[in-house]
Amino acid sequence: MSGHPAPRAPFRPRRAGPRRVLVHIALFFLLGAISLGLGLQGRALLVGHAAQLEGSLLVDTLLEGAAQRLRGALVGEDSPQALARAVDTGISSRKRLLKVEIARQVQEDQPNQDIARMALDTLAQGVLARAGEEDRPALQALYEAQAPVLATGLGEAADQLERGFSLARVRLNLAVGVPNYPLMYYYTPLLALGAFLLLFAAALAYTYWRGDEEKRAAVGQRLEPMDYLLPFFMGVIAFTLFPMVRVVIMSFQERYRLDGSFAGWGLGNYEHVLQGVPGTTNYFLQGLSNTLLYVLFTVPLATALAIVIAYLLNQRLRFSALFQTGYFLPMVTSVTAVGLVWRWIFNRNFGVLNAILGWFGLAPVNWLHAASNSMTVLVIFGVWSSLPFTIILLLSGLQNIDETYYTVARVDGARAPRIFRRITVPLLAPTISLVLIINSISAFKVFTEVKVLFSGYAGPALNMYTMVYYIYDMMYEYRELGRAAAAAIVLFVFILAFTMMQRWIQRRWQYE
Amino acid sequence: MSQQVKNRAALRAATRAYRLRLVLARILRYLLLSLGLVIMVFPFYWMISSAFKTAAEMNLFPPSLAPRNWFNLDNFRIAFEKAPFARYFLNSVLVMLGSVTATAFTTILAAFAFSRLRFRGRELLFSLLLSMMMVPFEMLIITNYQTIINIGLNDTLYALILPFISSIFYTYILRNFFQSLPDGLYWSARVDGCTNWKYLWKVMVPIARPSLVTIILLNALASWNSFMWPLLVIKSDLMRTLPFGLYTFTTEVGANYELLMAASSVVVLPMVLLFLFARKQIVRGVARGGIKG
Amino acid sequence: MQVRMEGLTKHFGATRAVQDFTVTLASGELVCLLGPSGCGKSTVLNMLSGIVPVTAGKIYFDEEDVTNLPPEQRGIGLVFQNYALYPHMTVMGNITFPLEIQKVPPREREARAREMADLVHMGGLLARKPRQLSGGQQQRVAIARALVKNPRLLLLDEPLSNLDARLRLEMREEIRRIQQETRVTTIFVTHDQEEAMSISDHIVLMKDGFLQQHAAPQELYNQPANQFVADFLGNPPINNFEGSISGGCFVMADGARVCLPGFAALKEGQEVRLAVRAESFVLAEGPAGDRLACRVDSVYQMGKEEMAVLTFGGTPLRAYIPSEEGLKPGDQVHLGLKDRGVFLFDSHTGERYL
User: Mutating which of C101, C109, C150 best tests the A interface, going by the most A Cβ atoms within 10 A?
Assistant: First the structure.
């Protein structure tokens, strides 16, 4: 019995739960306070901004309103020109100083009625000063008769303006460039978030205070998944879930603008997108038909070629690394850069394609600037660039076919064509259908190709719109977000249909 | 007896014909593949060779196959003078690094939560996420554009990174991989007092390195080559990424394609290098995921 | 159809998979290629089918030299371990496929396929797809497909390995039955000696690429050609004792000895191994020269008999003893040897002396 170590206490790992709860309480409290503070600040800023806005609006209303009403009262249809001119010059002479005075009184919160009266009086004085001797008494009498009514009317208009002035509308009409715009725009969500976080922190604190070690650990355990999921879900909610819902809503908001204003609810966007304006080209429908044609041509062609190439590649080859690198290269390169090369290749005067045509004695073709050739150009480029990805998938599908099937067939005497027809293709069918669907979905989204090949335009004669190009156009050029949203929904419906088809086909053709 | 001789002769002839067929098939195969290879690779060759041509050489018809001077770096120099390509390059790199790091971070954490941690509604939540996976970005782009402007981040590099920090697709892939790891590994670590965090970073992530590398590669590719989103969100010249910068460069130089080709080569080169390095990984990742890089 | 292999050799680079394999298989027999993993049996099968080219040697089907013939011209039927049924075709489609290749008219195709399906007892399931069949059913279809073109040779590669134990029993009898009804020369590969023993007409035992013995199952069991054959067949494995010959007796290191008449003929000091099957022991009354003195270590009940583990000369051995004897651990007993199942092999070469 030499040097036998003293028995150690059994190993009990420390519970991590309680400490986690404390950390969360502190964190949420802090974040909640910050959020709340920011929200309050945003609101305060907005209120101040609104007050400013309101003030200047009020001043303008009173000023212009007074001028208008006065003129209307003093000058009739049959009044002589000289009189009208006198009234006008009289009014304008007093305007500048009047504005300052109105502003001051508005600032001092004087009742609108009084300010209205004062404004009218001031302007009237100016008119009288400018009017001719003979008109003066008449004008004065006219004015004094109408003054109360005018003042009342103007005062009420100003009051109505003040009443109708809401924080929400100010917020919606905020120009984006205004300083502290994000804070002012999002003050409500910030407040809500702050309140929520504080409440949550309070609830946690309560549970902690009342609970014992076990309870605290359990709560800490429940909190853990949240920590891991939060970063991910923040991104998903903000940039996937929220936009999804928002776009659907937006598609029903007519004349929706970037600053959030819109004319009203309705199907106007869809009408415009699907029916267009009579007499003008409906670019969306053009985009729809172009996109469908593009998909119909590119996808089957690329798939057929890819099957052949994948079949050829599916052997023990020398230089297989070379072949693989070459065939798969276009997949990793930017469409923009490659598109430019193709633009050069398609060039009418110096392009390689026309040079090759020349070898065969054919006349050069105006690829890029003749509308009739646009689809061909796009399809060629589309097939070329979708080949690598398609080949990869098909090659992998081919390699998944058990060798023994081929051996058995060979032993029975089958030759290569029969084997290909009766064994390879049917067993490859699931992969082929997958490839068709995936490529179709990608092809529906064609945009960059058009933009690059046709130098930033939708074709030489604006004939190459695609659905996504339309969406982009609506957003960027026309600033019609509502229409863009409607178009996006239509696009989504198509893609959804294809995706559903994919799922259905895959399920039906499962062999295992 | 003669029948036997005849049979043997026929047999030998059949065998010879069979072998000949095999050889012919082989030759045909290499021929076709090479032809296809040329067609696939030709645009790249054209890009590079044009990048070294002078303006005069570009205006030849039929076009010359190779530049007179393969070391003519003039076009590159001029391109870099006319547009801040170095800056574009830097922007692209920054965005790629930021995007890849952020996405990897959120993906790893979320995949871990969905595979290892148990909480109520986990499976339901995950299937909801999956259904959101098929929503195309082109549809979300409208609101995201508005959001970015509202937050005041448009025309910054953050705008190019933020909307993409959560990828449902990559999380799906990684979560599947995590789930394939045996439970026993986890529990024996737990019994030793290992926390979830440590287990994730010290055990799961190293084991998942191939999958992670694939995800990172695909993410880097997508980030580098993205065009439509920067087109929308970036206005000032200095904030552009390479593809976008290249695009605007075209409007500046118009007909001087040799400059364009030089610029394009610069844009394409890093990804080509990456591909040469990590070809097997990328190909395997694409095949497995069934989605474009 | 008689199958004759002469000096068959296969090298994969530096690896010698099959060495100088010479064997003649009679027509109409069910022959098993048996051996441990890596012994070359699958390679021989592949050379017979033509999938793998031969390095050296010749193969004759009924005096016709098929060594260099491609598989499709040899007239063989092949069943793989995983059956390789075309998943996208029905059972009927699978079976008719070989006939389709041979351009047999559709009606005849169908008739022959039905015939085959009935033979393998799959007649009612012709419309099913492979994924709807059990393992045993899939194998029947694979066999039907291989037989439908009336091959002169049927080759099966580990046909029963993918089945569970109970199904294995049933299917091996099925294979036997089918082979009997069609009388096609059939060769199948397996590593399971019980399987081989139960249904083959002849067994070809291989090790490390070499032929060990080619004989009927009973002969392999009762008259093993060498140590390996004796070790490979039999369950439980044969008991081996290391020792040498001294004075007409088998002597072990610790002095334990047994003397049998045949030993006297051997060279003095020859190092040998005494091999005795578990069922070849007899419980005897007292010590004798031709008996082994053993101590009982443990006893396992097996119903009609018990299997006792005893020690002789420091080596454990297993013996079947009738239950009535009532052995207990620690008993000192004497075991006699029967006539059958007792062999003497050279310690180094495995050559058999007795």
Answer: C101
pLDDT digits over C59-83, tens only? 999 888 888 888 888 888 889 888 8
- CA–CA dist A177, A180 (Å, integer): 9
Superfamily classification of domain A272-508: MetI-like (1.10.3720.10)
DSSP 3-state of C343: strand
Question: Out of C50, C72, C82, whose CB is closest to A412?
Answer: C72
Angle between helices C106-119 and C165-182 (to 10 degrees): 120
Tell me if A327 sits within 8 A of A391, measured CB to CB: yes
Strands (E), chain C: 3-12, 15-25, 30-34, 56-61, 64-65, 76-79, 153-157, 185-190, 202-207, 210-215, 239-246, 249-251, 257-258, 271-276, 281-284, 291-301, 305-312, 315-322, 332-337, 342-346
User: Under a CB-based contact definition with an 8 Å cutoff, are residues A423 and C86 in contact?
Assistant: yes
Domain spans in chain C, listed from the N-terminal domain onward? 3-232, 239-346
List, as ranges, residues 105-164 from B with C-beta within 8 Å of A: 105-107, 109-110, 112-113, 117-119, 122, 129, 132, 134-136, 138-147, 149-152, 162-164
Q: Which residue stretches of A108-212 are H helix?
A: 112-130, 136-164, 167-172, 181-185, 187-210
| Cβ contact C131–A402 (<8 Å) | no
**Residues ≥6 apart with Cβ < 8 Å to B121:** none
Which candidate, A249, A253, A242, places its Cα nearest to that of A480?
A253
List chain C residues with CB under 8 Å of A412: 72, 97-98, 101, 149
Chain C's closest residue to A428, CA to CA, is: C88
Q: Which of A240, A333, A442 sits opposite B271 (nearest CB)?
A: A333
Q: How confident is the model at residue C34 (pLDDT cuts 50, 70, 90)?
A: very high
Q: Which of B143-152, C286-295, C340-349 has the lowest mean pLDDT?
A: C286-295
Q: What pLDDT, in 10s, does the model give residues B46-103?
A: 998 888 888 888 888 778 888 888 888 888 888 888 888 889 999 999 999 999 999 9
Q: How far apart are CA C86 and CA C130, in angstroms?
A: 8
Predicted pLDDT at B291: 45
| Model confidence at B1: pLDDT above 60 | no
* Average pLDDT of the segment spanning B142-167: 89
Q: Dihedral (C-alpha) C120, C122, C128, C131: value to the nearest 10 degrees?
A: -50
| CATH class of the domain defined by C3-232 | alpha beta
Percent of chain C with pLDDT over 90: 28
Percent of chain B with pLDDT over 70: 93
Instruction: Give chains near C: 3+ CB pairs under 8 A.
Output: A, B
Cis peptide before B62 (omega within 30 of 0): yes
Which chains have 3+ CB pairs within 8 A of B? A, C
Of A411, A418, A422, the CB nearest to C76: A411
Q: Does A412 touch chain C (CB under 8 A)?
A: yes
Tell me which fold the domain C239-346 belongs to: OB fold (Dihydrolipoamide Acetyltransferase, E2P) (2.40.50)
**What pLDDT score does A15 carry?**
62
User: Could you tell me if B111 and B171 are in contact, meaning their C-beta atoms sit under 8 angstroms apart?
Assistant: yes
**Distance (Å) from the alpha carbon of C193 to chain A's nearest alpha carbon:** 26
- CA torsion through residues B92, B97, B100, B106, sign: negative
Domain spans of chain A, in order of start: 17-183, 272-508
Contact assignment for B7 to C65 by CB distance below 8 Å: no
Question: What pTM does this model have?
Answer: 0.77
Q: Do B11 and C70 touch (CB under 8 A)?
A: no
pLDDT beneath 50: ranges in chain A: 1, 512
Q: Per the CB < 8 Å rule, is B46 touching A186? A: no
Give the ipTM of the model, two decimals please: 0.85
Residues of chain C positioned with their CB less than 8 A from the CB of B18: 70
